[in-house]
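Our preliminary data section would be incomplete without showing what the modeling component actually yields. Below, a chain of 217 amino acids is followed by its predicted structure, encoded as C-alpha cells that our downstream tools consume directly.
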Amino acid sequence: MSEPSTRLTLSLCTEKTQKWEELVRLSLQPGLGGGLPSLTKALADSGKQTLLDEVLQSDTVFSIRREFEGNQSTTTYLPFREVHFEFGTATPSNPEEWKSNIGYVTAKLRDVTAGRYQCVEWQKTKPAVYVVGHTDTVGSKAANQTLSEKRAGAIAEALHRDSPALEICFAGRGEMDAGTKDEMESAEARRAQVTVSSGEPPMEAQWRCLVKGVKGQ
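Predicted structure:
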C-alpha cells in the first residue's frame, strides 16, 4: 500500500500583472526526500520555469504563494540589487552604484507600503526588509563573517534613514557564497543583497533589526 501524498501548490503574482497565476501543483510523498528535484521537474514540465526565470531576472516586485497541507503562506521579494565594497571594508566601491541601488530599494518600499502593489495586503502583513552581506575568501572565516555583517549593516542603516517606520534586518554569510578557491580576491564576492518579505526571512541567521531607529536582536 502506497503512502498518502501531500499536495503542494505554488502561485506567482508580480508587480506588472497584479494577479495570481498558478505555477505548479504536485503531490509529495511524506517522509521521502527529493522534494526540490520534484518541484524543479514539475516547473519544467508545466512550462512555467521560463516565466519564473524571467521574473527573477527582472526589476519587478513579485510574490510566491505556497499552499501546503491546508496552510497558506506568501513571501514577497524585491529583486536583488547588489552593492559592492572595497577590499576588507564596509565602504562601497562605487558611490554611484550605492546611491542608485539604495534609491531603487527605497522607491520600491514606498510603492508597496503605499498600497500600489496589490498582490499582498501590506497593511496586514507588515513587510520587513532583509539585507545579507558577503565577502571573498581572503582572510579567516571568522573575520569574513564579521565583515559581511558590517556590510549588511551599512546598507540597513542607509535604508532605515529613508524608511524609519519599517523593520530592517541584516545578517552576514561571510565567504560561504564567494564561489572561489580559498584566499582568492574577488570583487564580485564582496557584496550585499536586499530583499523585502512579508513571510519568512531569506535564510536562517542571527538577524539584527532596526526598528524605529533602535538596533536589536
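The helical segments are 35-46, 49-56, 95-113, 122-125, 141-162. The mean pLDDT is 82. Preliminary results of this kind motivate Aim 1 of the renewal.
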